[in-house]
């Protein structure tokens, strides 16, 4: 069961990583295009809004993948001195706190997205609706919470015995 769940989460995170990469590429294109157009004519209208949306997508949709691949900064000089049992207990506690935090953050983002949808909030320049981007960031939060929940389960498994 755990391998099946790992495969589903990994595939979903790979897809979201592609979307995050596309958003990052969009930021680069907009920024470079804006610089060049300022030199010869006028800046791209609404580029600040679009770069903000793309930045939120790039960051939020890459969270789960980064957690799965341990692509974040970790300082384990102290914890490596602990026993495997203590290390697993700390991994469990860390994953629990992270899962709760990102679940609450996702839930609050859904609530905020619902408010934005109900009020019909639009960006000032391009008149783009906000709520789909807020929901996408919430989805990224829920996905990293799921990754952390799986890590909690893995931390409770007995360590394999050396032969």
Structure description:
With 163 residues, the protein is an all-alpha fold. It has one domain. It is 75% helix and 0% strand. The chain is built from five helices and no strands. Helix 1 runs antiparallel to helix 2, helix 1 runs antiparallel to helix 5 and helix 4 packs antiparallel against helix 5. The longest helix is centred in the N-terminal third of the chain and has 39 residues. It is elongated, with a radius of gyration of 20 Å.
Distance between the termini: 26 Å
Major sheet description: none
**Uncertain runs:** none
Q: Report the radius of gyration as a whole number of Å.
A: 20 Å
The arrangement of helices and strands along the chain is: HHHHH
- Apparent shape: elongated
Beta-strand fraction estimate = under 5%
Total domain count: 1
**Count of alpha and pi helical runs:** 5
Helix fraction? over 70%
Q: Supply the helix-strand structural class.
A: mainly alpha
Query: Mean pLDDT across all residues, rounded?
Result: 90
DSSP, total strands? 0
Quaternary structure type? single chain
What features would you highlight for this structure?
mainly alpha; elongated; 5 helices; 75% helix; 163 residues
